Amino acid sequence: MGCRCRPLAFLISLPFALVASVLSFIGSIVYVFGIVLSCICPCCICCVLLANLSVILVKLPVDVVLWFLDFIPC
Description:
Elements: H1 7-40, H2 45-71
């Protein structure tokens, strides 16, 4: 990997990161809902899967920006 300073890639990724941030907020709400449901009914495996999916959504904005930084050359 050459230079890590890619301002063009960062600027292009900002609108996508904004959309991913909205999905991240939704993911955090889903995570809290899934955790509460898994505490109420621990035998329900779908709540655990729902919580794992929401963790992926919470990490999405950072993943989008890093993907753009890796994808667009200097």
